[in-house]
Amino acid sequence: MNKNKQLKKKAVSLEGFVCIFLIGLVFYTLAHKMGGINMINTLIKTAHDLLINTVFFIMGVAVLAGAFASILSEFGVIAMINKFLSPLMKPLYKLPGAAAIGILTTYISDNPAILSLSADKGIKKYFKNYQLPALTNLGTSFGMGFIVSAFMIAQSTLLNKSLVIPVIIGNVGAFIGSIVSVNLMIHFTKKTFKNINIEIEKDESIDLEVINYREIREGNAIERLLDAILEGGKMGVKMGMDIIPGVLIICSLVLMLTNGPGPHGYSGAAYEGVQVLPYIGEKLGFILKPLFGFTSAKAIAFPITSLGAVGAALGLVPQFIKEGSITPREIAVFTSMGMTWSGYLSTHVAMMDSLGYRKLTGKAILSHTFGGLAAGIAANLIYTIFIS
Questions:
Q1: Around 295, how many Cα atoms within 13 Å sit in the side-chain half-sphere?
Q2: 54-64 mean pLDDT
Q3: How many CA atoms lie within 13 A of 133 on its CB side?
Q4: Rounded to an integer, what distance in angstroms lies between the CA atom of residue 241 and that of residue 58?
Q5: DSSP readout, 2-51?
Q6: 263 secondary structure, DSSP code
Q7: What is the Cα–Cα distance from 27 to 39, expressed in whole angstroms?
Q8: Each residue of 172-189: pLDDT tens digit?
Q9: What is the pTM of this model?
Q10: Band of pLDDT at residue 3, cut at 50, 70 and 90
Q11: What is the C-alpha to C-alpha distance for residues 101 and 216, in angstroms, rounded to an integer?
Q12: Does residue 59 contact residue 236 with C-beta atoms inside 8 Å?
């Protein structure tokens, strides 16, 4: 297939009218509920706030994670992880042991931190071509895990019960969900690569010299350290810039469909919305409650909201506790699904685009949807077996 060949369609076609209709329907619905001026102001202010307080924060994380990963790569830590953890990572994830560092960096930061690893040639060399797209699913499975876990444990006082064990169960559930998500994605990437005639790199082709030896930079230890920090940091800046379109566009719309009006109604402030996703979650409660053990239909709003932004979902928890809508079981499931579904609708598009696999975004989202469901179900079952 010639990648440079331009595809053409008639200037006036059905999809143009369909596009106008769908865009008009979405914005008319939002404007009818919020008010036209309020809707526009909210969209703009949300995008601006996401840029200043979210994207630049993620960029800062990516710079630090990139520098950290580059240091680990330069001084052999990644090589050791790849050599010693391969027996564990390959059976579970079908990924090289070097992918384990991605779990750590995303757990203590956010989903896009995995991108800094994929751009480091010292790490990238351990991956086969079909494995690289699955890094998005691996990173998203553990994104903001530390923040989510710490927040949930902090609710122990409000619930008057220790939530350490439920949070641990939630982390185990997220781990199970990540295995489901990554393995599904690996299955899809192998199949897709074969369909478009891209040769699948075989595990047997690994050069033992790549595993037993590593490349290093020139100079003494201090010079190598400084070079690694600067080069890794530059990769973080690039990754931060690359995710701006996806985060601002997708996340702004998702948040408008997730959040509700402000305390004084619609005012055009940032992060207001029409609460469509929580409403859908309540309607699906008769299916989802048996799977996740929720005692109240309101609890469905947490995983649904997590799809757009887990930070917004965390804001629901204290009110749920005050209303008596959730128990430690829900905390376990919330932790599990919050980690696995931590804003993946808004970050998957940008992350897959940054990795250069935009056409596989749908497969990544589908795989991670099943991964999140598996995480929640696993947490509910583990809680039932060991706590109830």
A1: 11
A2: 79
A3: 29
A4: 10
A5: -TTPPP---SS-HHHHHHHHHHHHHHHHHHHHH-HHHHHHHHHHHHHHII
A6: B
A7: 8
A8: 999 999 999 999 999 999
A9: 0.71
A10: very low
A11: 19
A12: yes
